Amino acid sequence: MEENLNYGEDYKYIPATSVRSGVGIEVLDDVYMYTVQIVNIVLYGYPHTNEFVLIDAGMPKSAEEIISVVEERFGDDCQPKAIILTHGHFDHVGSIIELIKHWHVPVYAHRLELPYLTGKQNYPNPDPAVSNGWVAKMSPFFPHEAINLGGNIKEIPADGSIPYMPGFRWIHTPGHTPGHLSLFREEDRTLIVGDAFVTVKQESLYKVLTQQKEISGPPQYFTTDWSAAKESVEKLAALKPNVMITGHGLPMVGDELSEALRNLVNDFNQIALPKYYQN
Ligand SMILES: [Zn+2]
Ligand SMILES: [Zn+2]
C-alpha cells in the first residue's frame, strides 16, 4: 500500500497564517471545521465514535496538529474511515502522506483529479498577476507539482455517493481544478464547498490574516477555467444550501449565506474574475 508515496520536489512549509489558525468550530453536531494556518479541514461524524471521515488534509507539515485535533474530538488512537479530497492543491493535501502512513486509510478523489495525485501531471504554475495582493504575489512559491499517493488514492464512486458519509453526495465542481468536488447533504442542506468559491478574499494578506468574511470566487492564482468555475458556482447556489463551509474563510449559514451566494452568482465576473479578465 505504501509504495511510491511522495510529494512533489517543490513541497515545503509555507509560512502563512491567520487569526483563525488553530481554531475549531462545531458547525453542526456531526460537522466540525478546523483551520490549519489559512485552510480549513472538516471532520464528519459524531464525537467519540469510530464512524468519522476527514475532508482534506491541511497545509504541509501539519500532520501532527491534524492528528491531535482528530484525537481530541474522536478519542485517542482513533482513525477515520477514509479521507476525502475536494481537490489536490498543496494546501488541501499538505499532510496527506503522513496521515496515510499514520492511519492506513483509503483516500478518495474525483477521477479527473487523480493525475495530480498519482505523480502523472503537475498543476499549472500559479498566476501571480491575478492581483496585487501579497498572497497572490507569493503564489509562485506555492508547491504545484504532482504528488504520488500510489495505491492509496481511489476514485470516488461514480454514482455520487461518498464512502462512509451516508446522506451526503459529491458534486463535480470543476474550474478551480478539473476534478474539484463539493459535498452536499440534502436533509439539512449542508454544503462543504472546497475551493469552488470561498468566504475570504484569498489573494489579500490582510483579509486572509484577519479572515474578514466576504464571499469571493475560487482563489484566483490557482484557478484555470473561469467559465467552468462560474457554472460550478451556479450549480452549488441552485442547491440552496443552509449551512456552508468553504476551504478558506469562515462558515456561513441562513440568510447571510443565501444573500452572499445570490450576489456571487449575479455578479460573478465582478466579484470573482481577476481584473485583467474583466470587460
Ligand atoms: Zn485550491
Ligand atoms: Zn485552497
- SSE sequence, one letter per element: EEEEHEHHEHHEEEEHHEEHH
Query: Count the helices. How many?
Result: 9
CATH superfamily: Ribonuclease Z/Hydroxyacylglutathione hydrolase-like
CATH topology annotation: Metallo-beta-lactamase, Chain A
Domain Metallo-beta-lactamase: 38-248
Pfam families: Lactamase_B (PF00753)
InterPro entries: Metallo-B-lactamas, NDM-1-like, RibonucZ/Hydroxyglut_hydro
GO molecular function: hydrolase activity
Give keywords:
single chain; 279 residues; alpha/beta; Metallo-beta-lactamase, Chain A; seven-stranded mixed sheet; five-stranded mixed sheet; 9 helices; binds zinc ion
Characterize the structure shown.
This is Putative metallo-hydrolase YflN. The chain is of the alpha/beta class and 279 residues long. It has one domain (23-155, 162-277): Ribonuclease Z/Hydroxyacylglutathione hydrolase-like (Metallo-beta-lactamase, Chain A), CATH 3.60.15.10. Helices cover 25% and strands 18% of the residues. It has helices spanning 63-74, 90-93, 96-103, 114-117, 134-138, 205-210, 226-237, 254-266, 268-272, and strands spanning 24-28, 31-36, 39-44, 53-55, 82-84, 107-109, 153-155, 168-172, 181-185, 190-194, 243-246, 252-253. Strand 4 (53-55), helix 1 (63-74) and strand 5 (82-84) form a beta-alpha-beta unit. Helix 7 (226-237) packs antiparallel against helix 8 (254-266). It binds zinc ion (2 copies).
